[in-house]
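testing teh design pipeline on a random one, pls ignore if ur not involved
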């Protein structure tokens, strides 16, 4: 019985040496190659993103999401009052819907620093994205039965350099 156990354990070790080690040796260079490729792909994307942000320099954005309790109000009462120079980004789940490159706009939105809730206003100045949540301002305007034009004035003030 003990002899059979020793033989079985020896076979398992032999199998590990014969099968697993060569597989590791085979896939290790692939892993290294993919790691290096990933590094350079990420570096190229970052450079292209920075160039894109410079290309759309001085752009202004109003970004809202599909939260049902507020989406209709924004679309009916806020968006019509916005200045034509303000680009609208609708975030449908995780998918930004706009006239801009989806991947780069997703990166812009992912980088939002003022994470206090939608909607957000963003401006790009000198290749830098500046963001602000107007969630509290929007709900203050709603809860105090103020005109949405007062909110739009705050938005316009943000976009003034």
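output:
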């Amino acid at each position: 019985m003990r002899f059979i156990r020793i033989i079985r354990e020896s076979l398992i070790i032999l199998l590990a040496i014969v099968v697993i080690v060569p597989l590791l040796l085979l896939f290790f260079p692939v892993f290294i190659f993919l790691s290096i490729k990933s590094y350079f792909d990420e570096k190229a994307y970052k450079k292209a993103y920075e160039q894109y942000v410079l290309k759309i320099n001085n752009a202004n954005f109003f970004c809202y999401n599909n939260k049902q309790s507020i989406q209709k109000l924004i679309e009916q009462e806020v968006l019509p009052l916005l200045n034509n120079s303000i680009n609208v980004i609708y975030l449908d789940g995780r998918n930004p819907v706009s006239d801009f490159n989806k991947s780069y706009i997703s990166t812009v939105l992912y980088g939002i620093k003022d994470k206090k809730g939608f909607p957000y206003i963003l401006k790009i100045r000198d290749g830098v994205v500046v963001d602000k949540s107007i969630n509290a301002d929007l709900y203050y305007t709603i809860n105090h039965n103020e005109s949405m034009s007062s909110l739009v004035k705050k938005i316009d003030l943000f976009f003034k350099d």
